[in-house]
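Board notes (copied after class):
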Amino acid sequence: MVKIALLGLGTVGAGVWRILEDPTGRDPLLRHVEVYGIAVRSLSKPRPVAVPEALLTTDAMALVTDPSVDIVVELMGGIEPALPLLKTALDHGKHVVSANKALLARHFRALTALARHRGVYLLFEAAVGGGIPLIQPVRQCLGANRIERLVGIINGTTNYILSAMAREGVPYAQALNEAQHLGFAEQDPTADVEGHDTQEKLALLSALVFRTAIVPLAEIPCTGITRIGIEDLRYARELGFGVKLLAVAQKTASGQLDLQVAPHFVPADHPLNQVEGADNAVLVEGEPLGRVMLLGPGAGSGPTASAVVSDILNIIAHHEGAFLDPQMTGEPTCQADLLPATQRRGRYYVRLGVMDQPGMIGIVGHAFGEQGVSLESVVQKASHGTQAELVVITHWVAEGQLHRALAQLEGLGVSIGALLRVLAREDEPSG
């Protein structure tokens, strides 16, 4: 029997317990798995599942150092006390499965180095795509491809909020409240709505896809969805787009990596625009395969537990000689050469607030032109007393030029209501 130590028995931990407790009809290898112990913060707290009291302990460190334990499954979340527990587990020769993207994005190098040194596995399928099989397909099934670009919706909370705003015409605050009521958003949704959760996942995913050292979070530009208004969703629909918070990782022609997390205008006929509610999806482009999309539930007890148990099965199957080596902790082939933010190029949607008076479109166009920003369209969309809204779509432009133009406009009394990228490739026609 392979003995498992579970650290945490919350939503995901309960989902893992349900799978391991009832292996009937699942992979036969699960019959070789035994939950040896479960570390919890309180023995008296109500549980979403019925677990024998003898399995519960508040001494997580004693559990991870127990010589009977083969695999430590960390589902606690956060940095402390998870980090010392995982380091100790690895140092004691235990395989580790984790769904903790916040921890891995910040301490990936140290943990993977320790795993290599001790000759054990550190697997984390659930940390990136939730229930979507993502890391193993990209690293194994697509391993023969040169990956050029990865674009994904990898946060179900923000996708649910934006979907509700677009579908029901409700403002951000109301859509967020609805997401919290349904359990799609935390009471403190900051990590999701400000894009930090997506940023952590992108740091992990891009390192694996491009086989580089992990990029520090501070070097990945990140913008959330809190400044998006229902008018932006309405204008997007009128212009033939939807709005999604996207994680983007792509190689430039010079070989540099362009990483970013930001809301995007997504063409109405693009497959990512069809992803609704709390679902996640990742589009991978490579040579010679072309384009492939992975779609499914990104969070929740069942989907995330499914990914956790798949990692457990990979470890067991490898030792049974029935599976390819699932090790994801090899040395990166190179450091990431990041494209400087000022050189990042894109097309943009900008919503501007201006005085409702003749000549303002000309003033705005002149300011953009002075900074070398070519405009595809400038349209006045609404008036509110003495104020009017202008909606601008740019042609391809360097980000530094765009921000200089916006700074110039602010100096002229123009307010910047919203700024979103338009999902496109520079070699594709605009419009």
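Comment from the instructor: The first strand starts at residue 2 and ends at 7. The radius of gyration is 24 Å.
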